[in-house]
Amino acid sequence: MVIRHGQVEIGNFIRKIRLEKNLTQEELAERAELSGNYLHEIEVGKRNPSLKIINGIAQSLGVTIDLLVNGQDAYCHLMPITELITNCSPSQLKKIELIISTALDME
């Protein structure tokens, strides 16, 4: 499968995240097992990477494919909830699950 839409945007997202992680193109290319030139061409929108390549880049950056393709993680809206429940005990998590289930059943 090849990503056909938004290849310039994908390249921009890859570059932005790479720079946020203080990686050079060469470092990321090595991690993703790509040539530096190929990664450069992806970043500037000259190459259309396959999903396999995008997955390798995402793994090398430690992010989701969704973040590379869309500029945000599909689950980013859950981060505040995740942070709240991270340190909950098992009994607290069970109560939270019951509250959520009850609220969803009310709709």
Outline of this structure?
This protein is mostly helical and 107 residues long. The protein folds into two domains: 7-70, lambda repressor-like DNA-binding domains (434 Repressor (Amino-terminal Domain)); 76-105.
Task: Describe this protein's structure.
It contains seven helices and no strands. The protein starts with 6 loop residues before the first helix and ends with a helix. The model is unreliable at 1-5 (pLDDT under 50). The protein has helices at residues 7-20, 25-31, 36-43, 51-61, 65-70, 79-85, 90-105. The protein is 64% helix and 0% strand. The protein is elongated and about 55 Å long. The chain has 107 residues and is an all-alpha fold. Helix 2 packs across helix 3. The protein folds into two domains: 7-70, lambda repressor-like DNA-binding domains (434 Repressor (Amino-terminal Domain), Orthogonal Bundle), CATH 1.10.260.40; 76-105.
Furnish the topology, listing elements before pairings.
Layout: H1 7-20, H2 25-31, H3 36-43, H4 51-61, H5 65-70, H6 79-85, H7 90-105
Helix pairs in contact: 2-3
- Gap between N and C termini, in Å? 39 Å
CATH architecture of the largest domain: Orthogonal Bundle
Average pLDDT across residues?
Answer: 84
- In the CATH scheme, the class of the largest domain would be Mainly Alpha
Specify the number of helices.
7
Structural class: mainly alpha
**And the CATH topology of the largest domain?**
434 Repressor (Amino-terminal Domain)
Largest sheet, in brief, is:
none
Give the ordered list of helices and strands.
Answer: HHHHHHH
Structural domain tally: 2
Q: Beta-sheet strand percentage?
A: under 5%
